[in-house]
Amino acid sequence: MTGRRSNLLYSQKIAPYVFVVPFLLSFAIFFVYPVYSAITMSFQEIVPGEAKYVGTANYEELWNPSFLKALKNSTVYTALTIVLLIPIPLVLAVFLNSKAMVFKNFFRSTLFIPALTSVVVAGTIFRMAFGELDGSLMNTIVTALGFEKQRWLGDQWLALMTLLILACWRWMGINLLYFMAGLQNIPKELYESAEIDGAGTWKKFTRITVPLLKPITIYVFTISIYGGYAMFTESYMLWSGNRSPKDIGLTMVGYLYRSGWEQFNLGLGAAVGVVLLVITLLVTVIQLRFFGLFKKED
């Protein structure tokens, strides 16, 4: 018996399954089961101690002005963060990777430090900086430049701009780190060969750097989609709660929080979560297909 047990422990056929089991268990417990529970709850009306099947009533209730506003806000925010947080960190990474760049470590640290700051602290600071009072930082700056003070968190587009500034300030360093790691893996011989062939800086950037950074770009694009649609804490802290003027700061996760936690409508909250999951998956699959990730390599 002892010999048989030792043979099983050291079996090359069984060993792979032993190593895979912890992942499968954690995936089933922390992803599959919660998703299954959310889908089940989305078809129920849940009250303390009782869950009643209501069919698609929760999904029908979703089509209201607040949900559509949250969907619009999250989609516009996600699209604009992608536009800002992919090209800008890429260009900055190229500059910081250049031999001619001085104080590289200083700039790397300066750009990365905001990522270490708590979102709660950052949101509170930005709320004070973009406040409506005359003495707020941004109003002091605009009035010094000869413009009128603004209601930064009371206007739709100014509020969106504030959220984008906060996102860029916080996540620019993270994406910069990804692109710099990718640049380290590009052989220098390619650039030297291009220089011999007469290629300039722009051609080397467009013909060598950008194509070889495609895997990193796809990864950053994917996490940006998730991060954009999952944004909640920043909005919550800027408006000191989940109630912004005319819902200009309401996001999909904010609407989920409002429905499921504040109003204790867990069925509706679960329906919001399922819709958000489907939207995120669809957008991710579309962008992966656009980048050709599903094509077979020759």
Automatic annotation (TrEMBL):
Any one of the GO BP annotations: transmembrane transport
Keywords, comma-separated and alphabetical: Cell membrane, Membrane, Transmembrane, Transmembrane helix, Transport
Please list every transmembrane segment annotated in the UniProt record, as residue ranges.
14-36, 76-97, 109-130, 157-179, 212-232, 266-286
The record's GO CC annotations read: plasma membrane
SUPFAM superfamilies per the record? MetI-like (SSF161098)
InterPro entries named in the record: MetI-like, MetI-like_sf, UgpAE/MalFG_permease
Major place of residence: membrane
Write down a Pfam family by its short name: BPD_transp_1
Boundaries of every ABC transmembrane type-1 domain copy: 71-287
Q: Which family does it belong to?
A: Belongs to the binding-protein-dependent transport system permease family.
Protein name, entry field: Sugar ABC transporter permease
Q: Origin organism of this chain?
A: Paenibacillus nanensis
